[in-house]
Design brief:
The complex is a heterodimer of chains A (about 240) and B (about 425). By secondary structure, chain A is an alpha/beta fold. Chain A is built from seven helices and ten strands. A six-stranded mixed β-sheet of chain A has the order 6-7-8-3-9-10, with helices on both faces. In chain A, strands 2-1-4-5 form a four-stranded antiparallel β-sheet, with helices on one face. The chains are: A alpha/beta (about 240), B alpha+beta (about 425).
Chain lengths: ~240, ~425
Amino acid sequence: MIRLQNIHKSYITGTNKLHVLKGIDLHIKEGELVSIMGSSGSGKSTLLNILGLLDNHDEGVYELNNEEIKSMSETKAAKLRNNLLGFVFQSFNLISFKNAMENVALPLYYQKVSRKKRNNLAVEYLDKMGLKEWAHHMPNELSGGQKQRVAIARAMITQPKIILADEPTGALDSATSIEVMDLLREINQSGITVIIVTHENDIAHMTDRIINLKDGVIESIVENNKINNTESVKIPLQE
Amino acid sequence: MFDRDKWQEIFSTIRKNKTRTILTGFSVATGIFMLIFLLGAGRGLRNGMTSVFAQDATNSMQIFGGRTTKAYKGTPEGKRIQMVNDDFLNLKKSIQKIDVISAMSYIPGAETISYKNNFGNFNVSPVHDTYKEIKNFEILKGRFLNQNDLDEHRKVVAIQDEVKKVLFPKETALNKYININDIKFKVIGIFHQSSFDDNSREIYIPITVAQKIFNNNDHIRRISFTLNDVSVEESKNIERQITYKMADRHNFSKEDKNALWIRNNIENSQTFAGLFSAIEMFVWIIGIFTIVLGVIGVFNIMMIVVRERTKEIGIRKAIGASPGSVVGLILMEAIFITAASGYVGLIAGVGLLEAINQFDIIEKIYAPAAIYFLDPQVDLGIAIGATIVLVITGALAGFFPARKAAAIRPIEALRDE
């Protein structure tokens, strides 16, 4: 599903050049539940942005869904994002002046699905998240966990192949974090590849594979076989 | 562009961001409103001034006899210059540029004019038939005096519509006889003329008749004529030429400014034309600056809007909005707001002008000024043009920030908390 070879990325800030990714080789198969871990500044968010076509890589080969991603037009990238990818962000990123249903339906607007149809579908997805009664509430009337579930519904509505989650539990308390993780795992079990960026060990240990990033390179990859075992949550910190 | 869903998306954004919409709309509406109102008022002023000053043909001149202020060749100062028929004939022959020329004499005594039991005091002016080319008449019925009336000394009369109202309140006037100083004159025409003074009530009779039956002399009170294609310079030359000729004929100093009064409408009308152009230009400058301010307002607000919406744009892009659709969304919103509020400004401006016109508001505020303000209206083309310009500039004002917004990487937009 995703294949990265020798990916480099640097940012230029003023006269300084910050080399963030220094040759990433990675293969993520379809249907995997993967986490990318690392301390801040390790390049994990940059990697996620490149995976999510939100940013371009400078060097190397990136294959997404058997298609090589080179410099492509913004319009094409937007279309790929819309069809293939779903995003879940730490700060939810719901549009504040749209209600939950409209937020969930928005990706379908860009697929030119009719208003009625996409709103019905949005309510259906909210129902799956247990938020049917909240469909007409504005984001500021929802709790953090509810907002994140709305965001997940929005990511799911286009039936993407990959869900990219950037610190999805970063702004949530631990109980809600577990709820959200359970939700993401459920999504993964339906066959969708899920990639989670996190700096929290316990969250990472709920995934199949942990990719540890340090200073822009992959330090180690930990296969986690106890995926369905909630005991793994209790694995002590390795650092 | 006419995608219903897209418009619904735009409307829902507009509805949910009312303050922003109202602020943008307000600056646009004010701009258009001011422009329309100023242009209309300027036009009204121009119309008013023109109608006041256009009672004489703009290529005409008038000569009146005056009194000398300088002793000349033995005659003392203070001599009255009385023009006579010969002066008229002489000028007619000697000034080649003259198109039509008419003299005007006067009838002495009370000018009580009556028809049956109706009577009134009117100004009776004996003139040549050519006078209708010099004065801006509008013949409503019948005709003005003609050559035959003069040659055959016919006792005929052309009366102003105001005179007709007094003498013939309920019947037709044509071919009826009115009394002027107890002599019967047949009404041959009714005309309308605009004037400084609303009370002007004029009657014209053939000059030949007046000189024969009322004056029994060949005195003339004034000579009016029009000139063909002359510049202001030439008209001044002609003025000088006439002064010299008349000075010779009537024995006064060429330098004497008071012996002969010459009103040069060519010069005057040029002065007024200049004044009107200056007013019009002034109005345009104010209007254009108002529009520019409106556009700057739209630009500012659009910049703020885009800044405010950076995150929203980031989200939209992350979930699959193409840069084109982002630009489209912001641009359409800007165009819609400027067009709609421009229209509101247009209606308000035209409405105010209409109200001023309909309810004579100026008359109520300051009556003496009212005649200088007539028919304030805006060229529809200019009004629509100005609105279109504002919409286009509004769109441009929206376009650059929108393009900038669309170029933002979603990730940067999303970091923007």
